[in-house]
Every structure is written in structure tokens, then in C-alpha cells.
Amino acid sequence: MSVVSPVLDQIDANLDASLERLFALLRIQSISTDPAYAGQCRNAAQWLVDDLTSIGFEASVRDTSGHPMVVAHHDGPEGSPHVLFYGHYDVQPVDPLELWTDDPFAPSLKEVEPGRKVIFGRGASDDKGQLMLFVEACRAWKQVHGSLPCKITLLFEGEEESGSPSLKPFLEANADELKADFALVCDTGMWDRTTPSIDTSLRGLVGEEITIKAANRDLHSGMYGGAAANPIRILTKILGAVHDDTGRVTIPGFYDGVEETPSQIKQSWDALGQTVEGFLGPIGLSELSGEKGRSLLELVWARPTAEFNGINGGYTGKGFKTVIAAEASAKVSFRLVHKQDPDKIRAAFRKFVEERIPGDCSVEFLRHGGSPAIQLAYDSPVITKAKAALSDEWDKPAVLTGSGGSIPIVGDFRTFLGMESLLVGFALADDCIHSPNEKYDLNSFHKGQRSWARILAALTA
Amino acid sequence: MSVVSPVLDQIDANLDASLERLFALLRIQSISTDPAYAGQCRNAAQWLVDDLTSIGFEASVRDTSGHPMVVAHHDGPEGSPHVLFYGHYDVQPVDPLELWTDDPFAPSLKEVEPGRKVIFGRGASDDKGQLMLFVEACRAWKQVHGSLPCKITLLFEGEEESGSPSLKPFLEANADELKADFALVCDTGMWDRTTPSIDTSLRGLVGEEITIKAANRDLHSGMYGGAAANPIRILTKILGAVHDDTGRVTIPGFYDGVEETPSQIKQSWDALGQTVEGFLGPIGLSELSGEKGRSLLELVWARPTAEFNGINGGYTGKGFKTVIAAEASAKVSFRLVHKQDPDKIRAAFRKFVEERIPGDCSVEFLRHGGSPAIQLAYDSPVITKAKAALSDEWDKPAVLTGSGGSIPIVGDFRTFLGMESLLVGFALADDCIHSPNEKYDLNSFHKGQRSWARILAALTA
């Protein structure tokens, strides 16, 4: 009998209890971007420490200048590798709250179609559900074997959804403690409900908030309209100029460092059979909005974007107010690929904006994090072993994919700890992460635990 | 002794009491655009009816499908003209409330510089202070002479700040009762603190709210960015295209009906000595934002505009959310001049927007009122008499000016009652109407009452 078989049985036997534990974690409103929830973030960190301690980890809440980190260690057999598992316990805000069918922080199991149950609640998929997979795999392994197959360090942060301001200082200050042979990062998705995947690329991210200020007070648009600067007009003129008619970003230097994807890779993506209709149909859309002449997967995995994530100015309540606002603001983000430099992109955008501000107006910039893109080697031993382990657990063989989202931690692990990451996750495209009615398939939660047990076995065989 | 002299003395003697009455009216939170304040609007109407009844008017609150009207009548000597005085008792919303130095609905008298006192509070200038001038002039006249010098009808509406939806039906239904020889409208300003003015033109207004809808839910900008439509991007692209680089509006047909102002009129405006620095300096600006090659007064009195009064979409709270919003919206208004047709402007704008909406997205329009511009005859007897009366009261002779704002009632009086209007008002440019910290000079309140008494005397001599 293999070393992993009884662990898989134990995971099966633990399923109901593991679900209760996840629900307890989901009930904690750990929204990191809103300072009002700081106490809840700390509660989530303490909950994880208590749970990890009960398994046998040496776990602690570690203060930062923002929300705390959770760090936990467990020894493994001599000569075994040392792996660092990363996850985040913070979640996105829940607005617009009225679009949720139930309280986002009252998790429940729902049967959405015959035989398919999902875990409903904010963070069910991103990332509390995903991080608990590994915790449960460790618990089951320890219960069966009384030990773990390798030295394991866990790092859970509480600021992933708000730019991770404390992460780099923490990694730098604790590099000796945290450096492992490689990292396991569980914040990605499956290709589909039966096909696991390993992400080999991640887009980077630059976040900027701009506020354009004109008059020193709100103005009557009749008295001043035609003479006085309107900051909403300036803002929309600038943002309206960021893309040309082919969908390309017009900011000078924006495409520096962007590489053409090798044709072999593009062919393997084409072989995945993803259609525009299949991708956009479920969200009510039908046309690709990005650069013309690029395939869907190229657009979301290998091309950079400029997106406007929020915009606000003037009177936005009911009715009408004939006002010229004193200021207007927007939150703008750029998804980066390949060798695009976040600092250069930020500087180029700021220059692009500043050049378009009238002489009697001003602009303020607020930085919201930045991280370069990641491109992993397709043929590393870790990826090869993990691919085989995943293929054993699931109905279909694992595939190598890209990811359109950012996981800045992967770049930080490379930069600060000299460590590459294995990106495996079990989220699905319809999980509604960052949206109302977030969920995580019960199947992902169950077979995800089993997958991590199999990967641990493969990596330590 | 002239008939008006004792009335002027009575106004002087009544000043403190008239101020107390205005404060009582200012305390009523009659914000018409927000349905939550409907009861307060009715309270303001009833307060006016009670006050007018005490003077001897036959006054009543008249229900509409929105906020009620106040109508009051008082007979005059046989053969005297019949004048209709118009004002509005509703006020603008008060947000952003945190920018007010005091409660907007707790009026007070403040000395802003030695010898200059102002009445502080929402509606102090627009329009409760201005409408009470005429009420107080009537009160004083009645107290002195036991009668009024002509037949007077008062019409106070409660929806001027929210598009006046009930006004036209009310005028149509009550045309016989309301039709007078001419109207007196007190919703405009003085040229400066010592120079009264009569407005001979008013810009019209078209208000539109547009909401662009893309995906059926908010999306993660990493997962979908580059593939899925972003409604904020569509909205900013459209609004960013409304003006060209010379400040002209690009909507096809927008300038149909706009006339060149006669050079004689432009010369008289130039003679007023208004500088860009003097106009924009107090609000912290220095550059004209409208069509290039036009003078300041031409831009605000005789040229049309497109303004963006509010914009909203995506995540606008603290921090950052990497979301692609499901929808984005904007409130847009157009100031019209001369013979521009509000319906055609609205239709042209909607077509302009619709042509720029991607095939898988949609747009919804919400109408927020519309009125054509007004251009009065410079040499009518009423204007000539009023100009002389104002020149008697103030330090400097009255001037004929234009107004950048809309007073739709003036067009409605022309359309529905076949009646022209005399536009006289005592607001000042620094009154902060529609903004935080609205005020009305005590001098405007005092000499404005005296001015109306003089005008009544001149018109009935």
C-alpha cells in the first residue's frame, strides 16, 4: 500500500469536519482593504494559528504595520525537501451587498444542480477554501502517519486583496526563516471541473488612483459652464485616450518588454478548445474587447491591459444636480506580461496624465501596489511531478496553462527568497471571486485536499 | 412725497423682522430632488401660504403629482397692470455636507468683512432669500397704503432644482388664473455688489443620465481583463469624444440654431470690464475651458456647452478592488443658446452614444428635463422702467446682461401663458449657490426689498 492511500481515506473520512472548519473561517469578515475590518483580519489570523497548533505546527500570529501574518513550521524527515505553502486569509469587499442572495459571511452548502454542491460565501474560493485544502491534507497525513513527509512552512498573509504592503518587508526581515526549496501557491484555478491545471505564467499588476482637481469648490454649471474647467471632462478625455481604436494602449513605452508568445505555446492553447462564446457567454458578453487580432487565451494570459476599475466625480445620487465638480477620480490598473517593468509603466502613465492636465488644474496620484509578471519554466522537475500527481487524482490529465491574474507573492518569493513557486489551485471560472455570490465547489474542496496529499507524496517519494 | 417713499421707510423699519421670517423659511429642508424630503417641501409651501395670508393675499397650497405649488392673489386698483411674481421654495441638495462650516439648515447672520453681513444657509440666495424680497415689499406697501399698487399674483414652485416636472401641466391647467400682463422673475444676480442688472438672455438646459451595461456581473480584472468589455472604458471613451481639442462639442447637429452674437452686444459686454482673472480667480482657476477664440462673457452667456455633472462606476471606496464593473453611469447636461432645440439635442446625444456602444453591451437613458434658451427684447417698456427704478436705488446704474443659467419658467411663461418676463435678481457671484456654504448678502436682502417696491411704483405710475 502506498504511503498516500491511507491519507486519502482519512481525508474522505474527515470531509464533514473539514467543511465545518472552513465555515468557521468564512464567518470571519476579514476584508483587508477597509480599515474598519482590521479586528476581523486579526481574528482570522488567530483562528488559523489555533487550528495549525492543534495539528502540531509551531504557529504564531506575526505583527506587521498592517494586518498580521500567520507563520507555522513543522519538521520533516532528514533529507526531505523544505516546502513553503502560501495562502491569504483576507477577502475582497462585498459591495454591492444587495446583489448577494445570502449574507456573504454566513457560509452554507448549496446544491446548485443535481449532484453538484458548492460552498457559498465571501472567501469560499479566494482564498480561504483553497488554503484550507493544504491544511486539511497536512492534518490527515499527521493523523495517519504521526508525522509529515517533509519540512513544511506555512505563510498566510492578510493583505493580498489590498496590495500586500507588509509582505516585502516581512519576507526581507524573515528571509532565513521562510526560505525553502520551493513554494506551493494555491490561489489559481482548474482548467475546467474535471481537468486540473498548473499555471506557468501570471500577469503582473500596477494599481494607480488619480484625482484631478479643478476649481476650489463645486460650481453652478449655468454660471460657470463654458468658462471653468470640469475635472470629469478632463478625466474622461484622458481615460478615453488610453486605448486606440484597435484596443491597443497608447501610453508611450507601454509595450516595452512585451514578447510575442512562441507559436508552439499558442498552438497548445488553441488545442484547449476555449471559445469566445464559452468564455464570455456565461457573463452575458460575446465580443473580445482587447487588442484586435489576438486569440482569447493570448489576450488574457499573454497580453497586457489597461483597465479602469472605478470612477467617481460630481453628483451621483438620485435626480440631477447641475454642478461642475471640484474634483474627479479614477482607479486604474494595468495587467503586465513578460518583462514589462511596473515602475516604468507607472511613471509612463503618470506622465501621460500630467501632460493632459490644464495649467490651472492639478492631479494627485495614489500608488496601489505593483508587481512584475511571472513566467515559469515549463519543464522543471517540480512541475513534472505535480502534473503526474494531479493526473492521478482527477478524471483528466493536468494541463499547463497561463493565468490572467496577479499573484505578486510569486515574484516576491523569487526576488526576496530566491525561490520558485508551483502554482496549483482548484477554483473554477464561475466561482464569482471578487463578485457577489462567491462560491467554491465542494468537489474542489474534497479532491483538492486529496490532490495536495498526492503532490506531497510525489515531491517526497 | 412719492408713493414709494413711505414704503421704503417701512421696509427699513421691518428689516429685523423680515430677517426672522426668512430664517424660519430657511430652516425648512425643502430639497426637492431627494424624495426623502417631500414632507419638508410641503412644509415650506404651507409656511409661505400662512405668511401670505397674513399680508392679505388669498393664498393656497396647490397639489401636483410632485411637490405642491403655492398660488396667491391680491387685487389692485382698476386699470392697473396684473403682474405675476415667480419664485421657488425648493433648494439644492447639501452634499458634500462635510464642506459646510455650519449646518446648512441652521441659518445665521455672519459678518464676513467689516460692514458686510451675509445670511448663511442653503437657499439663502437660491431662491428663498430672493422670493422673500418681493413678499416683504408687498407687506410694507400694504402696511403703508392698505392696498397694493396693482393686481399681483404669486407663484412659488417646489421643483425648480429637480427639473420642474409638474410645472407645465400646472400652467396649462391654470392658465386663465395665472396669465398676467407680464411676469417678474427673481432668480438672477447683480452685476456686482453695487450694480444691479436685468438679464436679457438665459441659456436653456438638457439633462441626460446614461448607464452603460456590459457583463451581467462584476468581473475579476485579472481573469477577464483584455477579453471582456469594461463599461467605464466605454463611458470614458464616449465622454472623452464629446469635445474636440478646441473645446467645440463634436455631436453632429449640436450647433444648429446657435447664432453669432451681434458685434454691438459683444462690445457692450466687453465694456463691462469683466476679466478672466476676476471671474476665475476666486474659484482658483485661470484658463478659459470653453471654445477657443470666444470672450469670457460670450462663453457663459451666448455659447452652448456640454458638461459632465456626475460620473460613477466600479469600486470607489477606500483602497483598491481589481474589478471590471458590470455598469457605469454619468449625468450629462447641455446649456443651450438662441434657437437650439432641446429635443433635437437630446436625440443627437443619444445617437452619438448609441453609435459607440459595442454590440454586446447596452445603454439606458434617463431624461432629466429640458428647456430652450430665452432671448428678450432689449428695449421693451417694462425693461426701460425697471432699469430706471433700479438705478434710483443702487449706487450705480443698472446694466443689461445675459445669464448662463437656465430658468425654464421664463420659456414656459412664454409658451403656456403668452407672457414675457422681467428678470431682476440680487444674488452675487460668490453666493455659492448649489455649493456648500451658500449665503446671501444682507445688503441684497435689504436693498432688494426696496428695489422691488421701486419697480412696482415705476410700473404702476
UniProtKB/TrEMBL annotation, chains A, B:
<dbReference type="GO" id="GO:0008233">
    <property type="term" value="F:peptidase activity"/>
</dbReference>
<dbReference type="GO" id="GO:0046872">
    <property type="term" value="F:metal ion binding"/>
</dbReference>
<dbReference type="Pfam" id="PF07687">
    <property type="entry name" value="M20_dimer"/>
</dbReference>
<dbReference type="InterPro" id="IPR002933">
    <property type="entry name" value="Peptidase_M20"/>
</dbReference>
<dbReference type="GO" id="GO:0006508">
    <property type="term" value="P:proteolysis"/>
</dbReference>
<dbReference type="Pfam" id="PF01546">
    <property type="entry name" value="Peptidase_M20"/>
</dbReference>
<feature type="domain" description="Peptidase M20 dimerisation">
    <location>
        <begin position="201"/>
        <end position="359"/>
    </location>
</feature>
<keyword id="KW-0479">Metal-binding</keyword>
<dbReference type="InterPro" id="IPR051458">
    <property type="entry name" value="Cyt/Met_Dipeptidase"/>
</dbReference>
<keyword id="KW-0378">Hydrolase</keyword>
<dbReference type="InterPro" id="IPR011650">
    <property type="entry name" value="Peptidase_M20_dimer"/>
</dbReference>
<protein>
    <submittedName>
        <fullName>Acetylornithine deacetylase/Succinyl-diaminopimelate desuccinylase</fullName>
    </submittedName>
</protein>
<keyword id="KW-0645">Protease</keyword>
